[in-house]
Protein: Transposon-transfer assisting family protein
Amino acid sequence: MGNFTFEETNLLCIYNTGSRTGLIEALTEMRGELSPEEAELRVLTDSALGKLQTMSDTEFAELELFPDFDE
Structure:
């Protein structure tokens, strides 16, 4: 179910809208604003989007999207 990395989880927490489709839309919009210098963030966003698109809304609801900035 997703297998999100630590960095992906934090990204999801930052852009979480409360729904899987809303989060996909928010990340897609953010991705469109990235500059060429932000290639690493683009790769991270693409990876997270791919995982979100393959999971169900039920699986998304089971995610615990609380940022852990201490790690």
About this structure: The chain has a mean pLDDT of 92. The chain has four helices and no strands. The first helix runs from residue 6 to 15. Helices lie at 6-15, 20-32, 39-54, 57-61.
